[in-house]
């Protein structure tokens, strides 16, 4: 079985380049090479919990499935450069505060509404409207930096910012800043989180025609499509059926049996034994590695020595190697190794060292032990509460067990709670936890602003440091890529010492593809693109 490993490292500076699915319900896919149906099995467990709208949701799966519907102004190539898509060309002011796009004049939404400058303005203004409650997309659109979108004429639009905003082109290439029909925004915007036919309406190569929450989404070919980023017209495959199957064993099983043509989010332990005729594509995507976020405002992690001891008391190398079968590299930085600005000099600088961890905890005053061997100080146990968002894949559960075991070895107790989304948010909002976990995909390192800035919407560590805020503000405002890279190097080195975030591994998007499929491509994040796919 062929396994393809791709590490798409984007050249530094490229991000500012400018140019003119239940098993029993799964029906077997058809065998026609022209038209027919392609069945795609995904994890997708939380889509029905109000995550059908990439302009609002922070879940990668939202953008992954809705890319079939939502086109963007520009497309980002594997080398980090940008090519026209819904915008024919664009120009950026010298200070990166104004982006003027010339739009195609032949694009329509699948409800018949024209795509024009008014549609761009309506979508962007909706994203930053506080009532929309967008976090990720609003941040990508500049948040407080967004000054507004001006309709110059029917097919020319100018997006302005109150300060230089270098990451905008990259943001404008994502489904988070994709476009809904203005008619939907006017009449049904409050239904977009739930999504569905007649609501999730875009200009994309497919139209969402059926949706059964927690079971499947059905996308039907947009026969009028003729504006793909590389000249693609309407796809060959008529029906894209997305089966929501949270269990990894089910996703691998339906590909092996031929009930599905491809499956996403395959865990490494299952990727190597799928049988003949199945190709496995593994793409290490850029962003913030899967990490632990230590909340310094709630409990024992207020002490830097405790945070440092926590990080050095985990045998990350051994756990990642054993659990992920060498398919995911151990992470050393808050930027993944394929992310622009990655600081390779950090590799090997904070290896597993129980002696050092014990010394740090001794220095921090945690010198006594209770009958369980857990350290004590002033009658308090050295204990941290870890909240995790369900569903938790088996491999991450195994990693959590290894982390807890390692830390017990230095007298550090970690109590883990796996919570449903509602219960998780009840604790995440007021930050009444000690640590939590996630990875975050992104090409421009500006995503660190969301995670480390005092006002960052994903600042789970509750970092509040004016110097760090200043660095993040300088990086987002600079048009000089060398300056930006230098700032992000400072931030990576700062975190390696301060230990607000403990990076564990850099994940890959692993997709199992059946032998009937040809022409499948992926974006920079390893998410399938179906423009040129055929089955037969």
Gyration radius, in Å? 23 Å
Oligomer: single chain
The parts where pLDDT drops under 50 for at least 5 residues are 12-33
Strand tally is 26
How much of the residues is beta strand, in percent?
15-25%
Helix content: 25-40%
Topology summary:
Layout: E1 3-7, E2 37-42, H1 60-66, E3 74-76, E4 82-84, E5 87-92, E6 98-103, H2 117-128, H3 136-140, E7 146-153, E8 156-161, H4 168-171, H5 182-187, E9 206-212, E10 216-221, E11 239-244, H6 248-257, E12 262-263, H7 268-271, E13 279-284, E14 287-294, H8 304-312, H9 316-324, H10 354-363, E15 368-369, E16 375-377, E17 380-381, E18 383-389, H11 394-408, E19 413-419, H12 421-428, E20 435-441, H13 447-452, H14 466-477, H15 481-498, E21 501-505, E22 508-513, E23 517-518, E24 521-522, E25 528-529, E26 534-535
Parallel strand pairs: 1-13, 2-11, 2-12, 18-19
Antiparallel strand pairs: 3-4, 5-6, 6-8, 7-8, 9-10, 10-11, 12-22, 13-22, 14-20, 14-21, 15-16, 16-17, 23-26, 24-25
Helix pairs in contact: 8-10, 9-11, 14-15
């Amino acid at each position: 079985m062929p396994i393809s490993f791709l590490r798409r490292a984007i050249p530094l500076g490229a991000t500012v380049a400018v140019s003119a699915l239940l098993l029993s319900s799964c029906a077997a896919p058809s065998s026609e090479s022209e038209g027919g149906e392609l069945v795609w099995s995904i994890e997708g467990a939380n889509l029905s919990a109000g995550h059908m709208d990439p302009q609002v949701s922070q879940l990668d799966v939202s953008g992954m499935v809705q890319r079939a519907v939502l086109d963007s102004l520009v497309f980002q190539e594997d080398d980090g450069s940008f090519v026209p898509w819904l915008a024919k060309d664009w120009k950026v002011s010298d200070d990166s505060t104004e982006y003027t796009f010339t739009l195609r004049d032949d694009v329509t939404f699948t409800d018949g509404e024209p795509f024009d400058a008014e549609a761009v303005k309506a979508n962007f203004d909706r994203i930053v409207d506080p009532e929309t409650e967008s976090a990720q997309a609003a941040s990508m659109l500049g948040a407080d930096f967004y000054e507004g979108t001006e309709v110059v004429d029917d097919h020319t639009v100018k997006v302005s910012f109150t300060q230089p905003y270098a990451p905008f082109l990259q943001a404008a290439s994502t489904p988070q800043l994709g476009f809904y029909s203005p008619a939907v925004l006017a009449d049904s915007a409050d239904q977009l989180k739930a999504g569905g036919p007649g609501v999730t309406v875009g200009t994309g190569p497919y139209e969402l025609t059926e949706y059964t929450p927690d079971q499947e989404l059905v996308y039907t070919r947009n026969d009028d499509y003729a504006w793909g980023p590389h000249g693609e017209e309407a796809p060959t495959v008529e029906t894209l059926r997305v089966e929501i199957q949270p269990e990894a064993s089910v996703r691998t099983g339906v590909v092996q049996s031929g009930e599905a043509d491809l499956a996403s989010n395959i865990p490494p332990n299952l990727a190597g034994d799928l049988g003949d005729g199945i190709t496995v594509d593994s793409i290490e995507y850029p962003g913030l590695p899967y990490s632990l976020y230590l909340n310094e405002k709630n409990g024992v992690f207020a002490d830097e020595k405790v945070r440092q001891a926590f990080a050095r008391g985990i045998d990350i190398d051994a756990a990642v190697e054993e659990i992920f079968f060498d398919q995911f590299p151990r992470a050393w930085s808050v930027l993944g190794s394929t992310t622009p600005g990655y600081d390779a000099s950090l590799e090997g600088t904070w290896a597993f060292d129980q002696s050092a961890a014990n010394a740090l905890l001794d220095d921090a005053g945690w010198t006594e032990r209770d009958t369980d061997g857990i350290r004590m100080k002033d009658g308090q146990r050295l204990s941290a509460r870890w909240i995790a968002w369900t569903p938790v894949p088996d491999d991450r559960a195994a990693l959590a067990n290894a982390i807890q075991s390692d830390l017990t070895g230095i007298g550090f107790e970690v109590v883990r709670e796996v919570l449903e989304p509602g219960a998780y948010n009840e604790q995440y909002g007021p930050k009444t936890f000690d640590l939590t976990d996630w990875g975050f995909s992104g090409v421009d390192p500006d995503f660190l602003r969301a995670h480390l800035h005092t006002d960052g919407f994903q600042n789970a560590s509750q970092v509040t440091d004016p110097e760090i805020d200043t660095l993040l503000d300088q990086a987002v405002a600079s048009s000089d890529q060398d300056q930006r890279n230098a700032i992000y190097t400072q931030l990576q080195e700062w975190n390696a010492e301060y230990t607000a975030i403990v990076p564990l591994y850099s994940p890959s998007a692993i997709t199992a593809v059946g032998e009937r499929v040809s022409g499948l491509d992926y974006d920079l994040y390893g998410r399938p693109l179906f423009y040129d796919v055929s089955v037969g």
